[in-house]
C-alpha cells in the first residue's frame, strides 16, 4: 500500500464555528464509506472539509473551489483514520469520561452566551447538541488512547533537539522591531499644490515646537488626525512591512529619541518619534530547547499515529460508495 499521511487531528471534531459552510452538501447526506461496517456520511466529510478550510484561512491561505477533490480526499482519509483509531481504542476498552465531556459542553455553552447561542452556532453548521456530544466523546477517547498507547514510546533526545536547532536557525531569529509614535496631518486626495504646501508648513511648525521643548504627546493629541492621537500618537511596536513603505523606511532609520522630518505617505504628512529599537537577535538553544523537544515529540507522535492507522487500514474492511 502506498504511504498515507493521516492528519487525524488536523481539524478537531470539537471546533464549533459561527462561519457558514463553505462546502455544503448539494443533496441529502448519504453514506460514502464504511469502515468495518461503521458508516461515514457525506455530511461528515463536508464538515471536515469546512474545518480544514477554516484552519487554512487562519494560517493565511485561501483555498478555492478548484481544490474540492483534494479537500474531499483528505477529509475522507482523516475520518477513516479517526474511525480506525476509535475502533482500536474501543477494542482495548477505552471509554470517555462523562464528567469531562459535560464540563467541555458546559464551557462551550458559556462561551456562546448560553444554550441558545450554542444551538444557533450548531444549527449553522448543520449540527446538533447530540452530535457534538458524541464527537466530543470520540475525540476524548482517541486522545486518551494516543496518550497512553503511543506517547510512552516516543523519545526525543537533547542531541536531536540540537540537530533540529542547528539545521533550522532561520526559525530562531527574532525580527527587528521599533516602537514609535506619530503625528499625522491628512492630505485630501483632491488637494491642490497650495493646500499641500499649507499642510506641510503646518506640520513643519509642529516639528519646530517639539524641538523647542513642547510635548510630542500633547501636540499629537491636539493636532493628529490618526486615532492614535488619544494615546499621544503611540503606535506601539511593529516590524518591517507592517507600515506603508515611506513610513517604514523613515521609522527604521531613526534612533531612539529622534524625531523625523515630515514624511509623506498616501495618508498625509507624518512626524515620527522613535521610542525604542529592538535589533534582530538569534534565540540561543538554551532558551528554546524545551519548546523544540515538545515540537519534535508532537511530530513523532503524529508519525506513530500514521504508522498505526496504516497498519489498521491494511487489516480493515473498507468500502467506498
Question: What's the arrangement of secondary structure elements?
Answer:
Layout: E1 31-35, E2 38-41, H1 42-58, H2 68-91, H3 98-111, H4 115-124, H5 129-149, H6 158-167, E3 177-186, H7 193-211, H8 216-223, E4 234-239, H9 245-253, E5 263-265, E6 268-278, H10 285-315, E7 318-320
Descriptive notes:
The structure is a single chain. The protein contains ten helices and seven strands. A hairpin with a 2-residue loop joins strand 5 (263-265) and strand 6. With 321 residues, the protein is α+β, with helices and mostly antiparallel strands. Mean pLDDT is 88; it is low at 1-20.
**Nearest-integer average pLDDT:** 88
Structural class: alpha+beta
Helix tally equals 10
- Give Rg in angstroms: 28 Å
Short description:
The protein is 51% helix and 13% strand. The chain has helices spanning 42-58, 68-91, 98-111, 115-124, 129-149, 158-167, 193-211, 216-223, 245-253, 285-315; strands spanning 31-35, 38-41, 177-186, 234-239, 263-265, 268-278, 318-320. A hairpin with a 2-residue loop joins strand 5 and strand 6 (268-278).
Short key terms for the protein model shown above:
single chain, 321 residues, alpha+beta, 4-stranded antiparallel β-sheet, 10 helices
Amino acid at each position: 500500500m502506498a504511504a498515507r499521511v493521516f492528519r487525524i487531528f488536523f481539524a478537531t471534531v470539537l471546533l464549533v464555528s459561527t462561519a457558514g459552510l463553505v462546502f455544503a452538501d448539494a443533496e441529502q447526506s448519504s453514506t460514502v464509506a464504511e469502515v468495518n461496517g461503521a458508516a461515514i456520511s457525506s455530511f461528515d466529510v463536508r464538515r471536515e472539509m469546512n474545518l480544514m478550510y477554516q484552519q487554512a484561512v487562519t494560517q493565511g491561505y485561501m483555498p478555492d473551489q478548484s481544490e474540492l477533490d483534494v479537500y474531499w480526499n483528505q477529509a475522507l482519509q482523516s475520518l477513516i483514520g479517526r474511525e480506525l483509531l476509535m475502533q482500536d481504542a474501543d477494542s482495548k476498552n477505552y471509554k470517555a469520561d462523562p464528567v469531562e465531556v459535560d464540563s467541555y459542553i458546559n464551557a462551550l455553552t458559556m462561551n456562546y452566551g448560553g444554550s441558545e447561542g450554542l444551538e444557533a452556532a450548531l444549527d449553522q453548521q448543520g449540527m446538533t447538541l447530540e452530535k457534538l456530544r458524541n464527537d466530543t466523546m470520540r475525540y476524548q477517547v482517541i486522545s486518551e488512547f494516543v496518550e497512553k498507547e503511543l506517547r510512552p514510546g516516543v523519545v526525543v533526545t537533547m542531541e536531536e533537539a540540537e540537530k533540529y536547532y542547528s539545521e533550522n536557525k532561520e526559525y530562531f531569529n527574532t525580527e527587528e522591531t521599533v516602537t514609535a509614535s506619530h503625528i499625522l496631518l491628512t492630505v485630501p486626495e483632491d488637494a491642490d499644490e497650495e493646500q499641500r504646501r499649507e499642510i506641510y508648513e503646518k506640520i513643519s511648525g509642529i516639528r519646530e515646537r517639539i524641538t523647542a521643548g513642547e510635548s510630542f504627546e500633547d501636540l499629537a493629541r491636539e493636532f493628529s488626525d490618526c486615532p492614535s492621537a488619544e494615546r499621544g500618537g503611540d503606535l506601539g511596536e511593529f516590524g518591517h512591512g507592517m507600515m506603508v513603505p515611506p513610513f517604514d523606511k523613515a521609522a527604521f532609520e531613526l534612533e531612539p529619541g529622534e524625531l523625523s522630518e515630515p514624511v509623506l505617505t498616501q495618508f498625509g504628512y507624518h512626524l515620527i518619534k522613535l521610542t525604542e529599537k529592538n535589533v534582530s537577535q538569534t534565540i540561543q538553544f538554551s532558551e528554546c530547547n524545551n519548546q523544540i523537544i515538545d515540537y519534535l515529540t508532537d511530530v513523532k507522535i503524529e508519525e506513530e499515529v500514521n504508522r498505526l492507522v496504516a497498519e489498521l487500514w491494511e487489516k480493515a474492511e473498507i468500502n467506498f460508495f
